Amino acid sequence: MACTPARRPVKRGLEDRGGGAPALRLGRAAEEAAAQFLKTHGAQVLLRNYRCRCGELDIVARCGEELALVEVRSRSSEAFGGAAASVDAAKRRRLIRAAARLLQERPELARLRVRFDVVAVKDPLGTAPRIEWIKHAFDCPAGRM
Predict the structure, then answer these.
(1) Per residue, what are the HEC states of 83-130?
(2) Which three-class secondary structure string do you get for 59-84?
(3) pLDDT digits over 98-132, tens only?
(4) Of 5, 34, 92, 110, which is most buried by a Cβ count within 10 Å?
(5) Which domains does the chain carry?
(6) Cα–Cα distance between 45 and 59 in angstroms, integer?
(7) What is the pTM of this model?
């Protein structure tokens, strides 16, 4: 299924007003912690919250000669497999379609090898969030990009 460009930016609830619901604050804090973590580990964050009709890429970062497309996940409990386990097959398909769209729009990025990472953030609103970076968390099926 092809992805068509969005006609206008996607806006969700109170996101653009600064405050927002607790889940939005938690998500923003997790993404900020993940971006800072990636920067301190040598990644160059190129884009955050890239959106198209297909889905959203939380963080797009350059790591040497690789383009890391990063899904940020936050969980308060490991009861259901943790943050990384929550990237199911449907989510992976959306990420792959969004990545294909990004690479069509930004051909200079298409020169790099692409990988899909997951950054799991535990307690992002705390003073010392615990972060796990899972490189090459999943692969794109052959011929999909």
Answers:
(1) HHHCCCHHHHHHHHHHHHHHHHHCCCCCCCEEEEEEEEEECCCCCCCE
(2) EEEEECCEEEEEEEEEECCCCCCHHH
(3) 999 999 999 999 999 999 999 999 888 888 889 99
(4) 34
(5) 29-138 (3.40.1350.10)
(6) 7
(7) 0.81
